Amino acid sequence: MKIRELDYTPSPINTEHQAMGLPPVEDYVSHPANHPVLRIAMWLAVAILLSLLGFLAWRLFFGNHESSGLEIIESALTSPLFWSAVAVGFFAQAIDGALGMAYGITATTFLLSAGASPAAASASVHIAEVFTTGLSGISHVKLGNVNKQLFLRLLIPGMIGAVLGAVIITQFDGKVLKPFISAYLLIMGLYILRKAFKHVVQKREPKHIAKLALFGGFVDAAGGGGWGPVVTTTLIGSGSDPRTTIGSVNFAEFFLTIASATSFILLAGQPSTWLLVAGLVFGGLFAAPFAALLCKKLHAKTLLMLIGSLITLISAYNIYMAISA
């Protein structure tokens, strides 16, 4: 049996857990800086983000363009479509960073309505998510919202699933899976809502996390979103702590998003929706730290209610659209 290092101090988080019948939080929640693995992963994310930003800045100002970098920026800032993408990016990341889901679903729906193909929409969303999930994951680590062991168990299987999903979506329409996934998520959403109004004690740790991460990564890349709804919802439904589950899933998402975005670029080329991608990134970067702080401050029962309601409504809507199509 694995020995867990629990923090029994009378902290506000432990008070919440006691009221809901959940066990005390582990020591990493109270002292997040004590974990070198998370620090290394966090600084790796920082290095990757800075490198990507530097590369994009170089491409913008020194690449082979018909217009100069400043002209491209001016054109974007005067485009209503760009500012629409900024609003969608901010809204989607605020929900995703606080509740651990819905960025891909929200942003993909917006891109499809703007005329992008399913493959181009999924590729664009995952390229934008590299930046938003990176900043969001770093914020969650700094605020102590990440469970080191859960993060590591999600990481590799999630990345493998994301690559497989990217390969599939470039070959055929991944929407075939959507009604079945929506039905599963509807059941999980109702189950989480039930947990929010009852005292539920977690008797054992979640099982099959690697398989769940593999499936979640595949669905996310193939359907343009789904990592958060599938993984976060299932883990919380099994009795995991909402706060550290959201933070861990969010941080792992950064690395699997890199895997899927790279796969999309190699298989399908760079998407032509760069203006929308830039807007999604711009809006999401502002929302990411705020959303992580909101996740830290919200009561565990409130998180359960919000997650359960959100996933139930989205899943019911997706099932309705699939039936009426």
Automatic annotation (TrEMBL):
Belongs to the 4-toluene sulfonate uptake permease (TSUP) (TC 2.A.102) family. It holds the Pfam family TauE. The chain crosses the membrane at residues 40-61, 81-103, 150-170, 176-193, 249-268, 274-295, 302-323. The keyword Transmembrane helix applies. It is found in: Cell membrane; Membrane. Its main location: membrane. It comes from Pseudomonas turukhanskensis. InterPro entries: TM_pro_TauE-like (IPR002781), TSUP/Inactive_protease-like (IPR051598). It is a multi-pass membrane protein. This is Probable membrane transporter protein. The keyword Phosphoprotein does not apply. Keywords: Cell membrane, Membrane, Transmembrane, Transmembrane helix. GO terms for cellular component: plasma membrane.
